[in-house]
Amino acid sequence: MEKVYTNLTTGGPISVYVEDGKVTRIRPLQVPEEDYPKPWTVVDRYGRKYSPPKAMRIAQNVFAERNRLYSKDRILYPMKRVDWDPNGNRNPQNRGKSGYVRISWDEATTLIANEIKRLIKVNPDGTIDGHKITAITSSHHNWGIVGYKMGPFGRFFGMLGYTPILDNPDSWEGWMWGATHMWGFYWRLGQPEQFDLLQDAMKHTDMIVFWSNDPDSTHGIYSGQESNIWRVWLKEMGVKCVFIDPYYNYTNAVMDGTWFPVRPGTDTALAAAIAYTWFVDDTYDHDFVERKTIGIEEFRDYIMGKEDGVPKTPEWAAEKTGIPARRIRALAREWASKRVALAGGVRGGEGSACRSAYGTEEARFLIALAATQGIGKPGVSIWGTTMGAPSDYTWFPGYAEPESQMGKSPVAKYKFALTNPTKQRLYRLTFPDAIINGKDAFIGDGFCGQSIEQQFNKHEYPIEGHVKMFWRYGGSFFGTMTDTNKWARMYQNDGPYALECVINQDCWFSSETKYADIILPACTNLERNDLGEWAVGGGYTTHAQIGNNWRVIVRQMKCVEPLGESKSDYEIFAMVAEKLGMGELYTEGKTEDDWAKAYWELSDLSKRISWEEFCKKGYYIVPVPDDYEEHPAFRLYYEDRDCDTQDYLNPKIKVVNHMNTLEPTEHSKELGTYSGKIEFASESLKKLSPDDDERPPVPHYIPSWEGHETELYKKYPLQIISPHPRFSFHTHYDKHASWLDEIPIHRVQKDGYAYWPVRINPKDADARGIKNGDLVELYNDRGSVICIACVTHRVPPGVMHSYGCSAKYDPVVPVPGATDRGGCVNLLTSGRFLSKNAPGMAPNSCLVECRKWEG
Amino acid sequence: MARLGFVFNVERCNGCFSCFLACKDEFTDNEHLPTAAATTEGVNLIKVNEVEYGTGTKVKVDYTHSICQQCSKPACMEKFPEQIYKRPDGIVIIDPVKAKGMQEIVGSCPYGAIVWNEKAQLPQKCTMCAHMLDAGEKVTRCFECCPNQAMLFGDLDDPNSEISIYVKEHAAELELLHPEYGTEPNVYYRHLPKPFICGEVVCGDTDDCCKGAKVTCVCDSCGKKMETETDFLGDFEFRFLPTNEHFTITVEAPGYKPATLKAKTHGSVNLGEIVLEKA
To answer: Which member of A17, A186, A284, A399 is catalytic?
Structure first.
């Protein structure tokens, strides 16, 4: 007998078909036609109306969810490393080399509880000093606000008073460390609002400039493929599309856009030359610039060469970017004569260029271009093309809202996330160095969403003392961070600060799992109950449902029993807490469903649908109100009106009723910069970082510290970029869902092994005797990776492209620095930050050489 | 009676492989008798092929779909009438019981749409999700999930169906694969990749991009004339050209001497920079 359950993934809502306790099929959430509310409608410049199809356009990798659920990589029972003896020799040097023995849950939780007891002590005020324990999750273990990392994980480690490891904003570094100093939005980590920009573009935009942006591959992050059809509409309406990217990306291909193959690291030179042309031609929005920006004179002085004697002419930029001067000039002139949406990344600002050396400058330059042309004027925007559909703004919390975090939610009695007494912090990008060296110093609080000043907070490690236990949860950093051989070095480090106990909790054997001393099997969210809203993480991206055609809140149902002995994360932490004598403290006597129901009750959803009906039906589609009013992002700013968008974290507006009724304040016309205006010359940088020549007040083109103008280029003459992947999500789905290996763009099969592709221009391939389909070794002083060569015109000579986020780290010998067959090109990337005071990662500034692999 | 068919709008397809994966999800290890046996890893009933063409910075990437053409006169059925039959709705089915062990069936499809399942010892192909249609559904798994609405599915014999209306409206841009096989396929493709000729016109005196130049392209053998204008970058292109034909391209802009070039479409041709001399 077939039963159908509902669930939700990072790529959208699904219907799960189960027969005899086994999942047989997974389809996009099946909603009977009559159950869809009235769809929204947008109108184009010719008066034609468009509404979305009655279907849920989930991300393609989700179609392999069944394959991933039953992956041979699933961890089915707890395990212990054979040569890790907590009472004797711990042999850290053997991590990644030695085997495992199966142990029972009772043994595993006893071992862990004993280790924790050894490492913590109770403070006089009753809080726990657990600074010797540290832990981190990958970005997205699973979906659902009960099960998400800020739930069980955050609550458990908050309770233990651990040393947190701060996340860097890995997908939009330059926007957080740069854009905030130009237009504020620190409460959005530098990313712009996107409200109602679909309608704006359909009606008014003549040209879209996609700058380091491939929305058909990166999906507006969690919105699956919902926005694809918008771009089809825009294309078929005749909106011209230009793509500035070293790679002829997939959106470029389907939009049949004009490609500007900019050399990696020189985007800012291109932008500077566009601004130069506008200044020379005097084709910019003087009125807007005068009213709503400051610092244009300083910016102009830099562009025109008054500051440094170098006018940023198209000829000057041509030499750096590889794009002919006449094409730069023509683009600038067309841009000035048209209404242009600048698609600077999936949510407005992301993209590989901002994850490069001096990525702060790229982000700020894009804002400078949009501001110079009057951002907020109809059709003129920074719009990633993946968000901005009409929506209802009824409040339902995303996983990152304080209200839905188990460690600080109003529904929790004990708010451990707020009471952690440990002061010291570690930083994800330098965590391995901190462990190996026993010390670290960095600035910024990772995600700096509270203020601009927060970027300058100083951290030193250790304060309370060195960490001894590391609890890793979900995914693999080998494929997502930079210079990642250091993670292997950290695990195997047997020096004075060696990690004494490493725990890895995951659903699958990920590439980091084999470095653990104890392995704990977690179940997926198809094997537990939860609830969540499609695409809405909450937190720094308010109302992310505007990336969807339909606003869907899903009751995530347990579809099958957990495989093997795997358990939900909540159960796992509750079991360990029990052994610590903190069971009741941790769970407050609540089951996962008790938490789920409490969140439903707290949210506006409880006013729309009863718990019983929600559980029975499995979803609720929130209709767009009939009297929906458009409030396009930045229009109010252009028109000098009070902020009227639903950007509820904006401190310049007053949140009256939960989060959807907003009122203006006396500052509601302002942005979040010091002046309240767009700052071509940043007041915050002048004040907080006055002598920084790597992030000066006015954005500059600064030659990359690992680009074509460096000495290293002679030795390693190929620039490789590694943007976010197309068929997987961070390191999720790759490796564990073998069906994806049959997509020849994702991995290519050769001699029974699925290799990660690297794209190389025919000229570079010929020079090295490389043919399409050859195995090649990419190498530099940091590492060596085997990929399969795809010889293509889609990258210009001198540039290679290979996606980041390979989940498979498969060194030929288990020692750091060994050649990897799995395709983790991140092993080759530099650990250097964007710049000295902008501690973001820059994987797209990477020089390598490439040769045919004969091994 | 009906004649179910597909249309693939190549220009809209972005190669997301959702159709490919949804098909795997429906059939891998799932038996749908009597129309389909389970498939296994490596056995794919729909294939998506990436086609890259053009050179230099003028590249195009398209996707074509290899799938059973649900022919009105199926070559496979003609050769194997015992094992293969056509349903009243037009779907061609390989009987998974009767065809067991018969690898020779694979070669009977001129489109190469039948694949061999080594594990099950079965020839298999797309069934248009017949088991779902039989259960009252209106969609196939691939059609259901296409985010760019690059597919149509329906009854080509019903003049009021969306697919029939589309086929009628876009007849000039639609084609069947190898109609010369005579099997009368029921899968249409819109804008299949074809060679294109492109170039970039430059003003010789100023080195500016030459916007608005008139470009004509004449087929040397048939005399067919196409005309376009350069865009703001001086770029132009002529798309969907026949293979292995000779063309004469003329560029004219006021105040400049016209330029004439020749091209042969053994593939796509990038004429590169065409520098116009001042008249």
So the answer is: A399
Q: Which of A254, A742, A796 sits opposite B44 (nearest CB)?
A: A742
Nearest to A228 among B14, B20, B52 (CB): B14
Is A170 in the active site?
A: yes
**Whether A60 and B144 lie within 8 Å, measured CB to CB:** no
pLDDT tens for A15-27 read 999 999 999 999 9
Q: What is the CATH number of the domain that holds A517?
A: 3.40.50.740
A661 part of contact set with chain B, CB < 8 Å:
no
Give me the domain span that covers residue A758.
712-852
Q: Which residues of A271-289 are buried (b: 16+ CB within 10 A; e: fewer)?
A: bbbbbbbbbeeebbbeebb
- Both A187 and A107 in one domain: the answer is no
Q: Identify which of B46, B40, B39 has the alpha carbon closest to the alpha carbon of residue B16.
A: B46
Give the DSSP letter string of A531-595.
EEETT--BTTBTTGGGGSSSEEEEEE---SPPSTT-B-HHHHHHHHHHHTT-HHHHHTT--HHHH
Q: Which helix (H) or strand (E) holds A159?
A: helix A152-159
Radius of gyration of chain B (CA): 23
pLDDT higher than threshold 90 for residue A452:
yes
Decide if B51 touches A, using CB distance below 8 A.
no
Q: Say whether A259 and B59 touch across the interface (CB within 8 A).
A: yes
- Hey, what CATH class is B4-190 in? alpha beta
Give the Cα separation of A666 and A651 in Å (integer). Answer: 11
Closest by Cβ to A330, choosing from B21, B50, B233: B233
Predicted confidence at residue A395, as pLDDT, reads: 86
For residue range A758-786, list pLDDT tens digits in order.
999 999 999 999 999 999 999 999 999 99
Residues 170-229 on B with a CB inside 8 Å of A are 202, 207-209, 211
Q: What is the mean pLDDT of residues A796-814?
A: 97
* CATH number corresponding to B197-276: 2.60.40.10
